[in-house]
Amino acid sequence: MHQGFGVVDQVFGFDISQMSSASANLVANNNSIDPSSIHGLFQQQQQQTAFNQDEKPQILNPGMISNQNQHQFVQNPAMLLPFSYSQLQEHHNSQHFSSPPPSKRLNSGPVGVNYVPKVFDSRPPELFLPRQHQQQQQNHQFQMLQQQQQQKQGMIMNQKMATDELVNQQQLQQATINPICQAAELIETGNPVHAQGILARLNHQLSLPIGKPYQRTAFYFKDALQLLLHSSNNSNLMDTACNLIFKIGAYKSFSEISPILQFANFTCNQVLLEAFEGSERIHIVDFDIGYGGQWASLMQELALKAGGAPSLKITAFASPSSHDELELGFTQENLRIFASEMNMPFELEILSLESLGSGSWPLPPCTSEKEVTAVNLPIGSFSNDPSTLPVVLRFVKQLSPKVVVSLDRGCDRSDLPFAHHVNHAIQSYSTLLESLDAVNVHPDALQKIERFLVQPGIEKLVLGRHRCPERTPPWRTLFLQSGFIPLTFSNFTESQAEYLVQRTPVRGFHVEKRQSSLVLCWQRMDLVSASAWRC
């Protein structure tokens, strides 16, 4: 597509469509226990126990001695092993002769009635650790709570700062865009002098296409309105050969860094391929041939068919006011060369769009029975003359094509007044530039894209709408009123379109399905939508 989103394919030298197991055996080498060694081990442990009892200081509570001996008895690992009768007898004898008699308790005197025994906390210091640990946990939880409260307060402050910054940005944006819309309204009401005064004051604020996306967009619309006031015939200068080279380079860069062209070409071509299944002769009526990159991609797919490539005929309608002969000649020659390399019978005819307004159709309503007709009808191709769309729809209706594919950039709103149309287009182009900035493209490449792609598209939109100020119904309403029926994209087309966009190395691009259309979005704003129709 050419109107603001032209296509350059790889046929022109551009590549567009490249669409432990460490678990060692844990063997513990469980050495078997020799029963004969148990006796010596038992004696050694009992001697050690007796030695400890001799040196252990006496404790006032005799029950504690008993409990202590029981505790040692349980902890003795030798007691966990089975013994024979002889071993048990030997153990009893050794216990009887080797253990000294228990020491007598110290008699501290008679115990009176009012005697209160002193209670000593005999627990070792280690037993106090849980209380200390509990206190440490409480302190830690308190500190964590303080940190969470501070973080929450910080998040609230950051959100407030972000909200305030967003509000300030919106206010600055409106302060820049509102004067442009006021100038457009003054031009619409026939007051060009006051409009020129507003635009002159904006020259100090918007002297160069620099800054944020909305500032650069505002600059281009300001220049377009000034061009509208100073241009006598409201026509663009013809392209020179050097200028054409720069434009092709800009399209190439745009197709490489943005998924817009790839999304648009793929969705439309996939619908056409499904409609052309089994056909030997294909006729495409195109209202936006651009540089022909879309059809070069289609030729590649058609050439892969098992039965051989079918013949392809393209009838392109172009307006002399928006298409230069040098550009059309370049497109025509390159498509012919590419078709020859594909061994595909090819024919290209270029007709004037203005010929449809005469009432005599340049094409017969009925074509060959073996020929399948399809129409490529982007809405942006009529931004130079919005009043032409109803006439074209009547012409397409009489062709009885098998399918009609269409694209909408979102900035073409001939159903709105001129000033509102300008405001809506500023928002749309700002979203486009914002998506380009997110890709971190080289500044030189971005400047060329804006100079040779974005700015001419804005000028064409402003000049064309001023030339045809009459409001028309929304384009979808016109399609329905003309007898067009929306078609649903196949599941394959939807999934492949989403996959294509997901390959973009920048987050923010996504595909949405709205009724019968597929929409490519940046963040929450539309970039381009594709739809298919039957009539």
From TrEMBL:
It comes from the Eukaryota. A motif (VHIID) lies at residues 282-286. Residues 251-316 are annotated as: VHIID. The keyword Transcription regulation applies. One of its GO terms (cellular component) is nucleus. It is found in: Nucleus. Residues 330-362 are annotated as: Leucine repeat II (LRII). Keywords: Nucleus, Transcription, Transcription regulation. The keyword Disulfide bond does not apply. InterPro entries: TF_GRAS. Residues 463-534 are annotated as: SAW. Belongs to the GRAS family. This is SCARECROW-LIKE PROTEIN 6. It comes from Salix purpurea. The lineage of its organism: Eukaryota, Viridiplantae, Streptophyta, Embryophyta, Tracheophyta.
